[in-house]
Amino acid sequence: MHPGIIFFLVILGSILFHIFTPWYWTDVASNWGGMDDTITLTFWIGGGVFVAVCLFMVYCVFKFSYKENRKAEYKPEDKKLEKILTWATTIGVVALLAPGLIIWNSYVNVPKNAIEVDVMAWQWGWQYRLPGKDGKLGTTQVVNVNDDNPFGINLDDPYGKDDVMIQSDVLNLENNVPVKILLRSVDVLHNWYVPQFRAKMDAVPGIVTFYWFEPNKTGEFEVLCVEYCGVGHYAMRGGVIVQETQEYNNWLNQQELFSDLIAKREKMEIEKTKLVKK
Amino acid sequence: MSEPKLEGIELKPGFKGMAEDTGSDQTMFKGVHWGKAMMWIFLLSDTFIFSCFLIAYMKGRGSTPVEWPNPSEVFALDAFGVPVPLLLIAIMTFVLITSSGTMALAVKYGYEKNRKMCGWLVLATAIGGLTFVGMQAFEWSKLIHEGVRPWENPFGAPQFGSFFFMITGFHGTHVSIGVIFLFIYAYKVFAGHYDQQKRGWFTSMKGNYVEIEILGLYWHFVDLVWVFIFAFFYLW
Amino acid sequence: MSEDYNDNKTIQAQSSETMGGGGAGVTPDMDYVRPAEIADQDLYHGHSFITKWIFCQDAKVIGVQYFLLATFTGVIGLILSWLMRLQLGFPGAAGFMTAEHYYQFVTMHGMIMVVYFLTALFLGGFGNYLIPLMVGARDMVFPYLNMVSFWSFFVAVAVLMASFFVPGGPTGAGWTLYPPQTILEGTPGSGAGILLMCLSLILFVAGFTMGGLNYLITVLQARTRGMTLMRMPLTVWGIFTATVLAMLAFPALLVGALMMSLDKVLGTSFFMPTILKAGEVLEYGGGSPILFQHLFWFFGHPEVYIVALPAFGIISDLISVHARKNIFGYRMMVWAIVGIGALSFFVWAHHMYVSGMNPWFGFFFATTTLIIAVPTAMKVYNWILTLWRGNIRMNTVMLWCLGFIVTFVNGGITGIFLGNVSVDVPLSDTYFVVAHFHMVMGIAPLMVIMGAIYHWFPLVAGRFLSEKLGKWHFWLTFLGAYSIYFPMHYLGFIGVPRRYFEMYDSPYMTSTVGMNEFISLAAFLVGAAQFILIFNIIKTLKTGKPAGKNPWKANSLEWLTPTVPPEHGNWGDRLPVVHRWPYDFSVPGAKDDYITQTTPPSEVSNTGVEKT
Known about the structure:
Chain A is α+β, with helices and mostly antiparallel strands. Chain A has five helices and eleven strands, in the order H-H-H-E-E-E-E-E-E-E-E-E-E-H-E-H.
């Protein structure tokens, strides 16, 4: 079989695979559908270039195969053609970069009404904290983290007292409300990612990183850690449940506040001293 | 490789001349010995190493959560009961810059084939370098005695000690290697190896006074790096 | 001792032209080339077995040494990839496969392939053999240093292999070695493993600095008469530019590795912030993990171009020789190589879009990354335009060239997906990235390496490799590798993460089981297919068809040595004199369809050849 045919079949196969593939992105469940659109645009432009270049190559292989008494064309340069190709490529590149940067601009500028959510990562699990009624998260320090204070909240910070503590790896979110995910880690690099939300950012120990999104579909989603963090990396999973407002508020009211935890511990201390005295 | 010939080669001045040289055959840098070109490129690479160190240091210092120690206080020396800030460093800088001066003179006398003067000046450079290393070692032992460690120190941010020892250590190693080569080259000059074009022990290539100039380039580089370290670490 | 040296002071290169500056009454004829600026090179000839084959200073021998050692490490990397695919395709099939082992395989596979196999092969292997020959020199300018550079590489490889045997095993931190995890418990090999890795990398950098000085000065200062920079084959331009990148990028790796070692050994906190582990706050504090990432990727991005640029250069030469046509747009190709090389220093943080670095950097690096796509695209166009109206020999070498074009364009386009910052957000850390870099760094350069082997084997060994076996080798490798990595992109679209030991417990990833099995089987097949080449080489060395001089009818100097294979000193008594670029193929009016670089203008004055 002529090699050109096999190369042609490879290109054709790639196109068919793309059209019929069962593995494609998950249904987007957040506001970042624009990323999908940019990917589609990149497929059209980039894929078009790939197919055009490879088919041109296949054509050359058929048309210009070696003949003893034939000579190739001798043409060291064609400045005009090179100029046209450079400009065409530049335009293609700009067409891709423009939407990409516009979306990135949106990604790094968090809407003012976004609810802050503290996502705390550790080897190898997650826990979450919400700002509570005062709308502000209390400040934390890694050295404060212990059984009595699982989030390391600074005890003298008034904003921390009404923080909602979610000590499971499943977070509930309200549908159609933007959230600003504040990521922090107490040990190594991690990354909180839900494929359906599209957004992600590394959690870096020593600083607080962020990203934001607005869920727009209810349902249950899996959270994956997507920054290698040691042998438990692949097992570091979590969950997100997106609910409508009524259900979400029901859930929220059942969660423990930091002040509740403090009160509980104080009560236990008093009980303990009573026992000792007896 | 013997000195490249410059006869019959017209060197045009300015950028136009450089462009012509670049477009010409055989060599890009006319009349430049291979060893010299090699040393320039090696030093460019070494510059990037020290730049990485210094940029990392600036980033570390800029983002330190704990107060950074005051260099004038930490590096002060007691002279007759009065603490003089940065006294030791000032002396070290003077010694190193002077040794660069003796090195430059050594290169000049080498090309003039004045064996004795060249040899003494290379030796003087070596001794200057050795003095510098000795003073650096003294400074290290003084700070270690005061409790400065790579992982912590009593004066402030723990990164102070780590950057200090790493950067001055790397520089000091460069100086020490230079000192070893300087002593060897001083011996070779006095023994007449460059006059006789005697073949070297390692590479078996013929000796040539250009080697003094090549070592000189390295030595000036080491001096220049010290000026930057001095500025960024001690003065800032 | 004196008979060991080429004291060639009295023998200068000859040609039909005059010597010296030309005195009065001498008219420079059309074949005039400027006289020699420097005396002929003084080479050391070894006489014992050790000085001829072990501690040899002949760049060709050193080139073969690099080639063999790099290939050895590549085979280890290949076996590691089989082990990885065994787990991913058939989890639980191997009893010894724990998560620790898996991550160690992942890390060592990556580091070996990128650094010890590809970089060493292109720069040390091809660079050493081809550069002196292609520029018309007798050897590299510092043969002793060149010899030391190989043995430094040898020690670096030995230290790396030793890390397999230390307590805790080799590091399992991923080839990117990110702190803090790399030096903490919870990551395999966080003890002696990572220290030996850092030591090996530092030794590697030292060795390649020595080698790099050789390659650069030889190209800049030791070309033969008539060889201007714009008459050098693109192979030399590619390796030269890659070496410049290496000299400027390796420092950042050295600094990063050194600082990481100090964090481990001395307890410094360059990269280590406050860390809580197993309920204890560690002694570290105040350091920045992102600082390491900046240092690493300042090295890491130019590193991929250190692999790619020699590949670009070599493929241009392979295509033009076997299509019997000048490379289209040679000057643009040179500027593209230099431009890509320069720009490669300004794009590194596209590996860090989701690292938590300052978000505003994303705008800058996305822009520079997409700018670098333009010169790269120009090169692709010029390769296919070289095929246009060519006279294409469909031999094994050409097949590898065509395979390169398909895989490189594929991999390059997916790079544009990832370079566009907001598109990178959903795709980063997924199998899309894995598919992209394997296609563009693994498969495409591998196509070039294979093509180069089939192309230059007749020069190095004097015989042709079997075309029949070569074609089997090509089709199995190309079709197999393409079927591994093309579908893998789609796993990334679903969101399957990288560096996952197990994934089928997750409901939406169970659909990938079949594809993963297929990919693993294809990987085993493609790996095995490489042994066809080894068999081909051994068979050819015993009974292969002799090639004679310049069997491909190429123009560049390496084919024009007096003996094949070239001997020590390359050129015998007379250095070559160059009159043209190496791409005068199919010149109208010429007797043959090629005109070698040393052919003087007077011999082709009746043809349509252009002045170069």
